[in-house]
Amino acid sequence: MSFEPKIVGFLCNWCAYAGADLAGTSRKKYAPNVRVVRVMCSGRVEPGFILKAFQQGADGVLVCG
Amino acid sequence: MASVRSHENIELMTYSEVVEISGYVGNFKVKIRKKPRYVDASKCTGCGTCQDKCPARTASEFDLGLGQRKAIYTPFPQAVPNVPVIDTETCIHFTSGKCGACQKLCEAKAIDFEQREEVAEVEVGSIIVTTGFDSLDPSDMTQFGYGRYDNVITGIQFERMSNASGPTGGRIMLKDGSIPHRIAILHCIGSRDVNYHEYCSRVCCMYSLKFSHLLREKIPDAEIYQLYIDLRCFGKGYEEFYNRLQEEGVNFVRGKAGEITDIAESPEEEGKLIVIAEDTLVRRKRRTPVDMVVLSTALEPRADADEVARLFSISRSKDGFFLEKHPKLDPVATTTDGIFVAGCCQGPKDIPDTVAQASAAAARVIAMIDKGVVAIESAISVIDEDLCCGCKTCVSICPYTAISFDEEKQVSVINEALCKGCGTCAATCPSGAITSRHFTTEQIVAQIEGAMV
Question: Fewer CB within 10 Å, N side or C side of chain B?
Answer without folding.
Answer: C
